[in-house]
Write a structure and sequence with these properties.
This protein has about 180 residues and is of the alpha/beta class. The protein contains four helices and six strands. The chain has a six-stranded mixed sheet, sandwiched between helices.
């Protein structure tokens, strides 16, 4: 039992240290697969949202759109080179809380939930369905289910996190610079 608590403590510390970004944000990023060789051939993308709470969907998609469009891509959900999937998941940090949904009001319950929320970002080449780029953003939350989320503050945090995550994704400006050198 003590070993389990120690291991869990190290796990929390690892997550927290990963989330302290030095740029003041509270959302951590993790790049899993980067930089397809033919990135310069991609100009348009579609965006699919999966398993995301309704109140998050629109503004998370908007903040992601801003960040990916800064990389020179345009959104076109009909004809595109990349199919991008944003998938939400969360893991409650305490086993006794696994069945409690943090987004559903629970009457007079004031139990505080502690969970890690993660947005997986996956980019698939449309013509081959091959995964060509992947990463995630995550944050530890401590909330009472159903309480108000501070959307305006969260928007800015998401935008910074998506920009940081996509920093390694080459933009057309990077290619132009490489060709002139």
């Amino acid at each position: 039992m003590i070993f389990k608590k120690i291991a869990l403590s190290f796990f929390y510390l690892a997550i927290l240290s990963n989330c302290s970004l030095g740029d003041g944000t509270q959302i951590g990023t993790h790049l899993k697969l980067c930089c397809p060789e033919n990135y310069s051939q991609y100009s348009e993308y579609s965006l699919k949202i999966q398993d995301m709470p309704l109140f998050l969907s629109d503004y998370v998609a908007n903040e992601f759109d801003i960040a990916i469009q800064e990389k020179g891509l345009s959104r076109n959900d009909q004809m595109n080179d990349l199919k991008i999937v944003l998938r939400y998941s969360h893991v409650n940090l305490f086993p006794a809380q696994q069945d409690i949904d943090p987004f559903v009001r629970r009457g007079s319950s004031s139990v505080e939930l502690n969970y890690i929320a993660t947005l997986e970002v996956e980019m698939y080449e449309t013509s081959t369905a091959e995964l060509v780029w992947a990463g995630s953003v995550s944050r530890i939350h401590s909330v009472v289910p159903g309480k108000y989320m501070h959307e305006e503050r969260a928007r800015a945090e998401f935008q910074v996190a998506f920009r940081k995550l996509l920093k390694a994704y080459p933009s057309p400006f990077d290619e132009t610079t490489a060709l002139t050198n």
